[in-house]
Amino acid sequence: MIKLSHLTSYITCPRLCYFRIHDGDESFTEFAAIREIYLSMRQGFDLDWARKRARALHKAFDDIVFDSAARKFVYPQIDCKTVDIDIVLKSESLGLLVSVEEIVECNGEAVPLFISLNPPEKGVWMRDMIKAGAASIAGNYSNALIYYAYTGDVRRVEVTFSLRRKVIKLIERVKLIQRGFLPERRESRYCDYCSFSEECERKSETFASKFL
Ligand code: SF4
Fold first, then answer.
1. Domain with 24 in it: what CATH number?
2. Whose CA is nearest to atom 1 of ligand 1?
């Protein structure tokens, strides 16, 4: 099965997606910390519980990362009712699993809500659009909300036909990577923080990788 995190990794870097699929990635990021804080608080637990939860669920849990994320976290002011928390949508036919932070009910409509960290000036990041598109494909939703936990912004994504097509294309590319195609190395700012940088420099490209 392909996970939503594989699709969003591909957006960051196709090679990163390769390494995460084939080698796994246990690093504890601020995003992972924020997710645990959000899920705990939306269920009425406090920060202390969120830390215990994060420590229990993440092998590489790090207090410094958790504290840094907790200092920046803004509690959401969302005028919608919680329907469900921390669920996984599944598309058997496409082999896709989509983890959703929350399903909320806004104006009588059930909408998936995803968390992210800082928002762009306008709209949402491409990786957040992909989350909305994947939820629409796996759960048949026509909208999604993105909660930017470092600023408190809530932004809506309307899922269009073209977004769904983008997600399908992305699934096809990730399926090729799953079968063993190693994408071409593309240097970016992310390489400075990438936990696979040494391995990435060692692995050479294949001819097929140029088509990913
Ligand atoms: S080092 Fe750079 S190119 Fe290689 S996987 Fe990481 S982000 Fe991608």
1. 3.90.320
2. 197
pLDDT in tens, 159-197: 999 999 999 999 999 999 999 999 988 889 989 989 899
User: Does 83 have pLDDT greater than 80?
Assistant: yes
Contact present, 177 and 212 (Cβ < 8 Å): yes
Q: What is the mean pLDDT of residues 15-28?
A: 92
Based on its alpha-carbon atoms, the radius of gyration of the chain, rounded to whole angstroms, reads 17
What span, in angstroms and rounded, lies between the C-alpha atoms of 179 and 92? 18
**Quick one: which of 207, 196, 208, 211 has its CA closest to 27?**
196
What distance in Å separates the CA atoms of residue 83 and residue 116, rounded to the nearest whole number? 20
Please give the tally of structural domains in the chain. 1
Residue with CA closest to ligand 1 atom 2: 191
Query: What's this model's pTM, rounded to 2 decimal places?
Result: 0.91
Q: Answer whether 22 contacts ligand 1 (Cβ < 6 A).
A: no
Q: How many CB atoms lie within 10 A of CB 212?
A: 18
114: helix, strand or coil: strand
**pLDDT digit string, tens, across residues 95-130:** 999 999 999 999 899 999 999 999 999 999 999 999
Instruction: Residue 82: give the domain boundaries.
Output: 2-211
Q: For residue 68, which amino acid is it?
A: S
